[in-house]
Task: inverse folding
């Protein structure tokens, strides 16, 4: 009997060790991907600037302008990447604890939608929001939830075709307020993207800005003991999460 | 332009960034001085007054937050724009609480910094004009707001509001019935528009409702207009302007 319980402990330990090793390997891979993704825009910036320094006298005004524009665009890309990574790293540290306060998720959703209205209009995408005044308040970190809503929205917008449609629904079910955002058109069928939501571990991925955003959203939900679900269907994709409802109207 | 030329002091230890700021701000017609160390910056600030300070936080000698603190103890109000590589929300809030008027994280876009400085000057001028005018007490039913003494009385008893809660309420009460988006409120009441900081408006509306509404879950004064924004739902014609509190 003693021996079998020893075996069980040893087996569990071996499993934990394997898990740790896997996690370390994944982190290593993540770092590699990130440095690669940073190196690409930086190489471009450096290359174009060096060209300008050595060749300016021979360059036409149009070339000059074009090289400068490339350098600027690529540096902006590097900035967005580092900002996202910095933010993600912050949410991974111990200090990242939600500061809970009571607020109305619907009002926040309305205000977040407004931030994206302009980019949606540019591509004739219509945003439909179902506002029901009787949705109860929630208790969560309002800054973090805004960040998560923005990340989900950014991603959905990116995957919605020209003149497409995005629908946001808030509903209350079983003491939780459910938020879901649905887009028609192409599904978010990217395998890596799905993996972000299916695993507990940070995953090897190719960090486009939108994916860092999704990782941030996922982490924020973990900090709130909640999860994001991604439902992919041929005609579109839905992101869903829920927060505990408060007993106030 | 009748206005006097504005003097700006830049305290920034990286000479390339200092020079970049000077070039762009001089193009806008401002006079720019650069200090590369905290101590040097403080000496200049004590010697004369500037119209605006652009301040880096990590400096050799006295650090930026300490400069901020010391400046807010000076008599003359000089607006401060912080530029810093410290991007965390805690840092930003600390800088703003210590009295900075705006906070940009490095790397930032120079045209954006210039635009924000221009907006800050506009806002300060508007505030100065406003301070000369509107000072009467606003009465909305049993709610009285005294803009000069920053006092609010609800059904006969004084209620305590933070500075921003007060300013938000005053702004609403001065514009009854008009609907404002969240970004408009941030712009009008806070005067700066930090990305990632907009939710402070939601938090302040919630706290204000908790203090002035009978049922904060069912607000009658500060209402949500779904899909648009927020409004002060008191009939404009019923707002009374009375002389100051005795």
Result:
């Amino acid at each position: 009997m003693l021996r079998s319980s020893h075996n069980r402990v040893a087996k569990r330990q071996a499993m934990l060790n394997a898990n740790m090793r896997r996690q370390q390997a994944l982190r290593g891979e993540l770092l590699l991907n990130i440095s690669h993704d940073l190196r690409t825009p930086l190489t471009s910036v450096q290359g174009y600037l060096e060209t300008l320094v050595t060749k300016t006298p021979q360059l036409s005004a149009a070339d000059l302008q074009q090289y400068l524009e490339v350098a600027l665009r690529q540096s902006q890309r590097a900035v967005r990447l580092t900002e996202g990574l910095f933010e993600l790293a912050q949410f991974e540290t111990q200090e990242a604890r939600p500061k809970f306060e009571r607020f109305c998720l619907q009002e926040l959703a309305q205000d977040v939608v407004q931030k994206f209205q302009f980019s949606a209009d540019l591509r004739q995408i219509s945003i439909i929001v179902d506002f029901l005044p009787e949705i109860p308040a929630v208790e969560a970190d309002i800054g973090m939830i805004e960040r998560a809503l923005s990340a989900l929205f950014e991603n959905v917008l990116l995957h919605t075709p020209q003149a497409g449609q995005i629908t946001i629904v808030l509903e209350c079910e079983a003491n939780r307020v459910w938020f879901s955002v649905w887009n028609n058109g192409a599904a978010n069928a990217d395998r890596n993207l799905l993996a972000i939501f299916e695993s507990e571990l940070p995953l090897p991925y190719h960090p486009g800005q939108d994916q860092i955003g999704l990782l941030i959203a996922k982490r924020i939900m973990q900090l709130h003991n909640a999860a994001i679900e991604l439902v992919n269907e041929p005609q579109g994709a839905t992101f869903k999460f829920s927060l505990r409802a408060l007993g106030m109207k | 332009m009748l206005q006097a030329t504005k003097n700006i002091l830049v305290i920034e230890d990286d000479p390339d960034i200092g020079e970049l700021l000077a070039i762009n701000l001089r193009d806008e017609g401002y006079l720019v001085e650069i200090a590369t160390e905290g101590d040097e910056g403080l000496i200049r600030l004590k010697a004369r007054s500037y119209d605006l300070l652009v301040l880096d936080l990590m400096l050799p000698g006295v650090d930026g937050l300490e400069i901020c603190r010391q400046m807010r103890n000076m008599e003359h109000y000089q607006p401060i724009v912080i530029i810093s590589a410290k991007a965390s929300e805690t840092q930003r809030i600390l800088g703003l609480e210590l009295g900075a008027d705006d906070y940009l994280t490095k790397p930032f876009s120079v045209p954006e910094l210039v635009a924000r400085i221009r907006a800050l000057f506009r806002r300060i001028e508007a505030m100065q004009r406003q301070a000369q005018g509107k000072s009467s007490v606003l009465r909305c039913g049993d709610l009285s707001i005294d803009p000069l003494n920053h006092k609010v009385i609800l059904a006969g008893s004084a209620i305590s509001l933070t500075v921003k809660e007060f300013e938000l309420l005053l702004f609403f009460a001065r514009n009854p019935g008009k609907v404002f988006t969240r970004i408009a409120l941030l712009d009008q009441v806070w005067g700066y528009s930090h990305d990632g900081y907009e939710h402070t408006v939601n938090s302040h509306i919630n706290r204000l409702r908790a203090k002035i509404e009978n049922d904060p879950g069912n607000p009658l004064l500060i209402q949500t207009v779904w899909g648009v924004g927020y409004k002060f739902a008191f009939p404009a014609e019923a707002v009374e302007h009375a002389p100051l509190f005795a």
Observations:
- Chain B touches chain A through 23 residues (CB under 8 Å).
- The radius of gyration of chain B is 20 Å.
- The mean pLDDT of chain B is 86.
- Chain B is about 40% helix and 20% strand.
